[in-house]
Every structure is written in structure tokens, then in C-alpha cells.
Design goal:
By secondary structure, this protein is mostly helical. It has nine helices and four strands, in the order αββααβααβαααα. The chain has a two-stranded antiparallel sheet. The protein has a two-stranded antiparallel sheet with strand order 3-4. Strand 1 and strand 2 form a beta hairpin. The longest helix is centred in the C-terminal third of the chain and has 28 residues.
Length: 365
């Protein structure tokens, strides 16, 4: 990625860590995890398998999977982190310390590989979700939460779900800055990008939710999914900018950085303006829907979505980071189909809806 600092790939063999007897040990009766990995023929694979053992008249299920909240972690080129978690037993501090240890004892090369694994999983998941959404499945939040099936869970109030789902980005920013590379944090490019990221989510967490009028809330499942995404996304972007992305001192004057920042600020302006137009459609106490007019709404039905996609595309251009590119892609594949659904909804609900408006991209789509 040009100006980014590329770390060497981990060696094929890494010495096993000292045995920690405070962590739960692998059941000798279970299948060999290494042999399962080898038998698949794939170098990187999310592996989940269950070992059933009868202990104290209780069925213990041991799960291994490749995620941050997983109970065991296997990354390409990394050592197998040999520990398991028995869901049939009550979690103890040893279990919690074991998970924490696995996440904090990674080398730089292992963490970069871990971040790349998260990026890969996010891109795959959001590609699939975009197809599902474009086929007509409506994510049950906002205007679509009213008639949502009970399978999606109870409705989370608007104020709660906005604050809670955006808060992980703020936590990730604070933690990553605190534990970040002090030299990188003195770089102007890193400082500006972190400030822009933090400013957006400060607004989304502590200002925007309190300005919403007549929000419909969100079903529990999409709320939890959104919170999980912001947790992963905040981590990979903030960690890259505070630990692994090293820019030249004059990068802030480069055409790439300037163009990316300008595009991001333009997208943020469109997004904020469009949110204001939607918010002012309702008088205090009103909950109905009206045709939005003004700004980018003269050209597209999803003007606020268009602005946010432009914003994070600019962020990806300015940072030249795979994590930021993943963020822009996930944003487009998540709220892009929602703009299409809004467009269809407006056309169906309002007979006088402007026929020249597009769904997401002015004059095109």
C-alpha cells in the first residue's frame, strides 16, 4: 500500500509458548485440531468443531472458531492457541484471563494477519448480505421495524440502539491511541485521520441520537449485528492508524491525501445536511412520513446514504489502508441496498413522488 509500513510475514515455524497451567487444557479425547486443519487442504479456514464428552453427567461442548470473541484462535502462519472453553461449566476468571491473554500476546505480524482475517470475513459477509437485501429482504430497523417478525427479537428504543451501537468506535479509538505507537501518533497524517474518524463517531454517538424525532427503533438482531460490526471496524481502523500505518512526513500535502480528505468532508456535509432535512420534515410530536426535498434529495432518494458512502470512500482514499477500504465497501453494501428499498417504498407510498429521482447515484442508479 505504498506509504504503509509492511511487516514481514511470520515464519513457518514459531516456537510454542510456555505451558500456562492456569488456562483450560485441551481434552486428550478430542480430535486433533491440527489434523483437521491439514485435512481441509486450506491454509486459512474458520474451523468449528464439537467434541462431546460426558463428564459429571454433563455434556460439554467445545467450540473453536476464528473470531475476536472466539474461544480459540488459529491464524494463517500462526501457532495454534491451545485452549478450550467448556460451556457446560460456569466461566471463571481463568477463562477470561485466558481469552485476554490470547488477544494480547500476539506479535505485530500475527496481529496484522488477524486484522487481515477480520477484513476478509467482513467483506465476505457484507457481500452476501447485499445480495440478500437486494432480493427484497428488509433489515428490521427504522421504518421497517414496525412490521418485523418476532424472530428478529424485541424492539430496541431508538436512543439506546444508536448510542450503544456506535459507542464501540469511541472505545476503540481511545484504547488504540493509548496503546499505540507514540512515533506514529506524532505523524500529521495519522492525527488528521484519527481526528476525522473520531469526530464522525462523536457526533453519531453523543449528538445525532438526541436530535432524532419520531424514531422507530430497531429489532434486537440487527442491533446486535450492528454493534458487532462497529466493534470490529473500530478496532481494525484505529489499530492500523495507531500502530501499523506509517506515512511520510509530507504525505499530508500529497494529492492523494488532500483529495481523499476533501471527498470525505464533502460526504460528511451531504450526510449531515440530508439528516437535517429528514429530521425537519416532522414537527415535534409527528411520526408520519413526507417526501424529502432539497439538497441531494432532489437527485436521489437515499441522499443521507449517498453522503455516508462518499464520506468513507474519501477516508479510504486518504488513508490508503485495507481496513478503511473494507469500511467503505461494507458501508456501500449495507446502506446502498437500503437506499434502493427506500426508493421503492417512496414510489409505492406517494403517487406524486418525483419520477426523475434515482435511488442512490444521481442520474445513474
Amino acid at each position: 500500500f505504498g506509504t504503509t509500513r509492511v511487516l514481514p510475514r511470520p515464519k513457518a515455524h514459531i516456537a510454542s509458548p510456555p505451558v500456562d497451567h492456569t488456562r483450560p487444557t485441551k481434552d486428550p479425547a478430542s480430535h486433533s485440531f491440527a489434523s483437521l486443519k491439514k485435512s481441509t487442504g486450506a491454509r486459512t479456514r474458520v474451523l468449528t468443531y464439537f467434541t462431546q464428552t460426558w463428564k459429571s453427567r454433563r455434556l460439554c461442548i467445545r467450540v473453536r472458531t476464528d473470531t475476536v470473541l472466539s474461544l480459540a484462535l488459529v491464524l494463517p502462519g500462526n501457532r495454534e492457541i491451545k485452549s478450550a472453553f467448556s460451556f457446560g461449566t460456569r466461566p471463571t476468571m481463568d477463562h477470561i484471563n485466558g481469552i485476554y491473554g490470547r488477544l494480547t500476546d500476539m506479535t505485530d505480524s500475527e496481529e496484522v494477519t488477524f486484522i487481515n482475517s477480520i477484513i476478509f470475513v467482513l467483506v465476505c459477509n457484507f457481500s452476501l448480505s447485499a445480495i440478500v437485501l437486494l432480493l427484497g429482504i428488509e433489515a428490521p430497523y427504522g421504518r421497517y421495524a414496525v412490521n418485523a417478525s418476532n424472530y428478529w427479537g424485541f424492539t430496541v428504543p431508538t436512543l439506546v440502539y444508536w448510542i450503544v451501537q456506535e459507542l464501540p468506535n469511541i472505545f476503540a479509538l481511545i484504547i488504540c491511541v493509548y496503546f499505540g505507537d507514540k512515533n506514529l501518533l506524532q505523524n500529521p497524517a495519522n492525527q488528521i485521520l484519527l481526528f476525522l474518524f473520531g469526530a464522525h463517531y462523536f457526533n453519531r454517538t453523543f449528538i445525532f441520537p438526541f436530535r432524532i424525532r419520531g424514531g422507530k427503533g430497531s429489532a434486537l438482531v440487527p442491533f446486535l449485528m450492528a454493534t458487532a460490526f462497529t466493534s470490529f471496524n473500530g478496532y481494525i481502523n484505529c489499530r492500523m492508524l495507531t500502530k501499523y500505518l506509517e506515512y511520510p512526513e509530507d504525505y499530508v500535502t500529497s494529492p492523494t491525501f488532500i483529495f481523499g480528505v476533501v471527498v470525505m468532508l464533502l460526504g460528511a456535509y451531504i450526510n449531515d445536511q440530508s439528516d437535517g432535512i429528514l429530521r425537519n420534515l416532522r414537527k415535534p410530536g409527528e411520526t408520519g412520513y413526507k417526501i424529502p426535498r432539497g439538497g441531494m434529495f432532489e437527485y436521489v432518494s437515499g441522499a443521507n446514504f449517498f453522503g455516508e458512502i462518499v464520506e468513507w470512500t474519501g477516508f479510504a482514499i486518504a488513508s490508503m489502508s485495507p481496513a478503511a477500504a473494507c469500511f467503505a465497501f461494507c458501508t456501500a453494501t449495507n446502506i446502498g441496498p437500503r437506499a434502493v428499498q427506500h426508493h421503492r417504498w417512496y414510489l409505492k407510498k406517494f403517487d406524486d413522488y418525483p419520477k426523475t429521482r434515482r435511488a442512490l447515484i444521481p442520474f445513474v442508479f
